[in-house]
Amino acid sequence: MKIQYKFLENLLIDSTNLTRNFNFFQRYIFIKFNQFSKIVQRINQIGMIKSSFVKSDKNKAKDDLNKAFFGHAEFDAIFSNSIKKGTTILIEEDYPTSMHVSFNRYFVGCGFHLEQNCFVYDVFPKRWYDMIPVKSTSEEKREQEKLAISKQKEENKIAWRYNHMTIKLKEEALSKDIPRLDLSRNVADKEKVKNLLISKDINQFGNLKELLDDICNSLQNSFSSENDTKLKKICITNLFGNFSKIKYTDQELIKFLYAIKTITRASHMLLVLTIPPTISEKLKSLFYMNFDLVIKLEPLFENTEFLDFNGMLHILKYPQINNYLNFKLDTLTWGLKASSKKRIEIEKLYLQPPDQDNINADNVYKEENKTQTIICSNKPSGKTDLDF
User: Fold this and answer.
1) pLDDT digit string, tens, across residues 67-123
2) Which domain holds residue 80?
3) How far apart are CA 143 and CA 294, in angstroms?
4) Considering only Cβ atoms within 10 Å of each terminal Cβ, which end of the chain, N or C, has fewer?
5) Following DSSP, what letter does each residue of 219-242 receive, concatenated?
6) What is the predicted pLDDT for the residue at 306?
7) Three-class SS of residue 59?
8) CATH code, domain carrying 161
9) In the chain, helix, strand, coil percent, each to 5?
10) How would you class 135 by CB atoms within 10 Å of its CB: exposed for 0-12, middle for 13-18, buried for 19 or more?
11) pTM to 2 decimal places
12) Is a pLDDT exceeding 90 seen at residue 13?
């Protein structure tokens, strides 16, 4: 009985304490609610309280530390300005024209004006110190914009069957971070050129291993510190061309291509290598397989369809991860215009309409044929059709 009484006494005490705690908690909630309601009323009286949080702008482009530029605004716009560091680019040259040299000048010149270290391996290395194009001035940019607008109006008239087709790339797609270059003039400050550009004779290397070792040493010496994140650009021109004296075997070439791709990835640099179109298809397939982006330049000489263009740019291979593209390609073939010495324009291909004189001549020819057929079809008098 004592044990049961003691248990009931403790239970009564606990229930009493619980009731007190509940009443205290209820009063506390009521007081806090009243305080909160007063705060809300005060906020409504004041109007609005400025927040310390900044609203994120979704349209504002974030700086991508892995982004890299080839150097031609329209070329980069084709790939939505999404070329990354560590990308290897292969260009099949055009012969007998030399538009590939202009593309190399864009590549090296952009790196120079962005104060990036550039390394060029060429058969004629000394010429590169006099081939860095200058930036276009603001007045020249305005003239180019006016010229582009006038050309656009003419092309809209010329491209009569592509009235609903955009020929030029939109101005919004062109990155403003890429310097616009004037190929007709070169940089006069030779000391600055030699500080940022190193050009070497590719024939001084007996084999591909020596070339690879020199590339590694040049990259290692170019880093100012461990935290140096500036982009490095390497341009190897006309490898295995008519003037190239480098000896190699297929096995050495495979090792070289794999090693140069690994170095490009590890060093976060950008590599451009050009090959002549005269090499064998077997060698071309090896190059195509080991490069991320493959471009072929084709001259247009006796082509009667695309009279407004001087060449064509074919995209044979483009970088992708697990069959996923981070950019959208409108077409794989583009037209090249080199009518001016200042720049190379990249546009969509379009057919030129027939000349008005030719149209009139065709109409006259059709009318003559029509009258001849009418005369020949008249039946001679007194004769009937044969019935078989």
Assistant:
1) 899 999 999 999 888 898 999 999 999 988 889 999 999 999 999 999 999 999 999
2) 73-347
3) 33
4) C
5) HHHH--STT----EEEEE-STT-T
6) 81
7) coil
8) 3.40.50.300
9) 45, 15, 40
10) middle
11) 0.70
12) no
